Amino acid sequence: MHICQYCNKKSFATKKLDQIELEKLGNNCNQVTFLKGDRIMIQDALSHNIVFIEGGLVKIHASGPEKEQILKIVKGPSYLGIPTVIGSKTNKFSATAISKTTACFIDFEVFKDFIIQNGEFAYEIIIDLCKNELFSYKKCINQAQKQGPGKIAEALLYFSEIIFENSSFNLPLTRYELGNLTCTSRETVSRILSDFSNNKIIEVNSKKISILNKEQLEIISKKG
DNA sequence: GCATTAACCACAG
DNA sequence: CTGTGGTTAATGC
Predict the structure, then answer these.
(1) Which of chain A's residues 10-69 bind strand B, using a 7 Å CB cutoff?
(2) Which of A46, A51, A65, A151 is the S-S candidate for A182 at Cβ 3.0 to 4.6 Å?
(3) Which nucleotides on strand B sit less than 7 A from a protein beta carbon?
(4) What is the per-residue pLDDT across A111-155, written as a single tens digit (0 to 9) for each?
(5) Residue A125 shares a structural domain with residue A59
(6) Is there a cis peptide before residue A77, judged by omega within 30 degrees of 0?
């Protein structure tokens, strides 16, 4: 059992719960700590839990016809698996920690009761789902229409602005994984990164990447 | 044809 | 795991 009342990492939705509901949540959720590489959710497993990532970085991936596909990188605080628990019996994707991550597993029946009984809670969940859907649309367009440099520029800006909120960061993926995420090959990632580096748009030191010319990167990302 | 883009292969560090 | 060079295929002037 977990004391949710005093948790300072509540989601926007759980901030809308009253004391009684928080107590109920606490009695029906459990916190787990994952290390880099640990699997948080396994595709095809039955799941009755909503996962809330309190903090840490998580890789969302699913198996395709020939290989595992990285769908996106998510930073806590964030819910995982709301669509897969509500819309399906089994998980339609896997989640793997790529840094130390704490997550709360919430019993779905309790989560469902909150949605049905607390409109403000439900509304916050809907906002979250909407944002995710729009993100998917955007990623689909990027993937279909942008060329290599545009895709990589987009990914670098995503890490810089959304994930790390810093112009300089340590890439939490290998070149192969970045290629997989952006739907290109590892060789293309290598070449584009050194190309950006030669043009003084970014600075690369193995995993450490600093964005030097954000405007230029945005132009490349935008025009594809 | 010729240029561009990017995947695949191979090899070195 | 990564960077680079050669090769090949698709696509667009």
Answers:
(1) none
(2) A151
(3) 5-10
(4) 999 999 999 999 999 999 999 999 999 999 999 999 999 999 999
(5) yes
(6) yes
